[in-house]
Amino acid sequence: MNSSDSSLIKRLRPLLGTWVTVSVRGANPEICQRAISDAFFAVERVQRVMSAHDSTSDLGRLAASVGEVLEVDPWTYEVLSLSQTLSLLSNGAFDITIGNQLAQFGLLPMHEGAAQPSGPGSFRDIELMDDNRACLRAPCRLDLGGIAKGFAVDQATAIAKNTPGITDVVVNAGGDLRVDTQVPEPVFVQDPFHENQIRYFDDMTSGAVASSGGLDAQRESDWGRIVPFIEGVSRLLSARQVAVTVVAPTCTIADALTKIVAMAEPVLANQILSLFRARAWVTEA
């Protein structure tokens, strides 16, 4: 972001379980501040309606109302729809109905009143209807942790960039990055298996980068320290100790594809990457 005739402002906030940074360049500081505030409002909206931790979010309401048709936020509906497409393409390796398995590993809290399945549901138990209505046809719990952060980054970027007078926007949410700038922006990626080591990745003016896995993704659970890659069909933790970085046109796609590359068969994963004009780098532990 290099220009002597405009203002550059960057702000940082804790959201989505990580630190979210919004950097904008615009005609003056007031315009930049307004664009940043609107961008953070978009991230807050995603956090509010798509939280897997909050029983009052769209996901919590659906889990507690199996068989009932509910109206959800249009953004939630959009992410649910794309998630179903990715589940079909990946033969179920990517599946957002793994919430109960995550809770069993101690990675999500159990929601009081939410139905607990005797067997695993699947993405096929999500029914989407017109007018942003959705229904769970079988007991299961949704988790959008594999895609919602990227979606939030995309929405924040678009809203900030559409502010009159704004020329450059960079949004970073814990490694999920979207760039929309006039001048190439240097992108750095954390080394997945060496703490405090940052590597130069590329210069970008438009596009997204997302990473999953590695030391930064490990979580303390009732089963020890694990990387929460859960394969959608088997509902088992992935045995692969890998880190995946994906470059794609949007952060929503980049975020989701990191999980597909980590869990799906390599040939199928490469086909899906090609379909979305994305590239992936896989690092084995």
Describe what you observe in this structure.
The protein has 285 residues and is an alpha+beta fold. The protein has one domain (1-285): T-fold. The chain has helices at 29-50, 58-63, 74-89, 99-104, 148-161, 251-263, 266-275, and strands at residues 7-15, 18-26, 70-71, 126-129, 133-136, 166-173, 176-190, 198-213, 219-221, 224-226, 242-248, 279-284. The strands form three sheets. It has a seven-stranded antiparallel β-sheet with strand order 1-2-6-7-8-11-12, covered by helices on one side. Strands 3-5-4 form a three-stranded antiparallel β-sheet. The protein has a two-stranded antiparallel ribbon with strand order 9-10. Strand 1 (7-15) and strand 2 (18-26) form a beta hairpin. The radius of gyration is 19 Å and the shape is globular. The model has no long low-confidence stretch (mean pLDDT 87).
Average pLDDT, to the nearest integer? 87
Which structural class do the helices and strands define? alpha+beta
CATH architecture: Roll
The count of domains is 1
**SSE sequence, one letter per element:** EEHHEHHEEHEEEEEEHHE
Measure the end-to-end span.
35 Å
